[in-house]
């Protein structure tokens, strides 16, 4: 009779890796270079410097990465990538995430692509829906749920107020 426990240990599944602060992208690149299957969900966010506002990709889950591994590969990955601190445990076993959950994260990111979770004044945005759909404007005022835009078109300047969820960043 085959040892089912051994077979389970060699069965690959999506595990949750914990990374050193701000090293998720480095860990992801190293995992891929070493032939592992990994997933690092990234979301776009605006960052303000003194001279400009830039859209950057940041990890959706800070310090976490998903890696498709079996138990033996876990220890090999930990040895070869120092910024991969550990894998998350739950009830004495590796915390797993299902393929369905991975697909749900991917669908969420696709569906919300262009949505901005944080906006800055003087940032260029495009209206996603409503009568101003497709129009681009500069944010002049930000509220909790609404924003005011300055839209220039055909020599006219229009000030419009829209919901924050109706805007997407323009890169």
UniProtKB/TrEMBL annotation:
<keyword id="KW-0805">Transcription regulation</keyword>
<keyword id="KW-0804">Transcription</keyword>
<keyword id="KW-0889">Transcription antitermination</keyword>
<dbReference type="InterPro" id="IPR006645">
    <property type="entry name" value="NGN-like_dom"/>
</dbReference>
<dbReference type="GO" id="GO:0031564">
    <property type="term" value="P:transcription antitermination"/>
</dbReference>
<dbReference type="InterPro" id="IPR036735">
    <property type="entry name" value="NGN_dom_sf"/>
</dbReference>
<feature type="domain" description="NusG-like N-terminal">
    <location>
        <begin position="13"/>
        <end position="105"/>
    </location>
</feature>
<dbReference type="Pfam" id="PF02357">
    <property type="entry name" value="NusG"/>
</dbReference>
<dbReference type="InterPro" id="IPR043425">
    <property type="entry name" value="NusG-like"/>
</dbReference>
<dbReference type="GO" id="GO:0006354">
    <property type="term" value="P:DNA-templated transcription elongation"/>
</dbReference>
<protein>
    <submittedName>
        <fullName>Transcription antitermination factor NusG</fullName>
    </submittedName>
</protein>
């Amino acid at each position: 009779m085959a040892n089912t426990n051994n077979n389970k240990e060699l069965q690959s599944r999506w595990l949750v890796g914990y990374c050193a602060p701000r090293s998720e992208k480095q860990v992801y690149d190293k995992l891929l270079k070493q032939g592992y299957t990994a997933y690092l969900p990234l979301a776009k966010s605006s960052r303000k410097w003194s001279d400009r506002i830039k859209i950057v990709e940041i990890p959706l889950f800070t310090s976490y990465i998903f890696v498709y591994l079996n138990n033996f590969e876990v220890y090999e990955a930990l040895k070869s990538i120092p910024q991969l601190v550990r894998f998350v445990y739950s009830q004495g076993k590796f915390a797993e995430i299902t393929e369905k959950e991975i697909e749900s994260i991917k669908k969420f990111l696709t569906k919300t692509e262009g949505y901005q979770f944080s906006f800055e004044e003087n940032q260029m945005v495009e209206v996603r829906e409503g009568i101003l759909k497709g129009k681009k404007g500069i944010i002049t005022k930000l509220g909790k749920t609404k924003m005011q835009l300055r839209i220039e078109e055909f020599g006219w300047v229009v000030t419009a107020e829209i919901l924050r969820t109706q805007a997407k960043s323009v890169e």
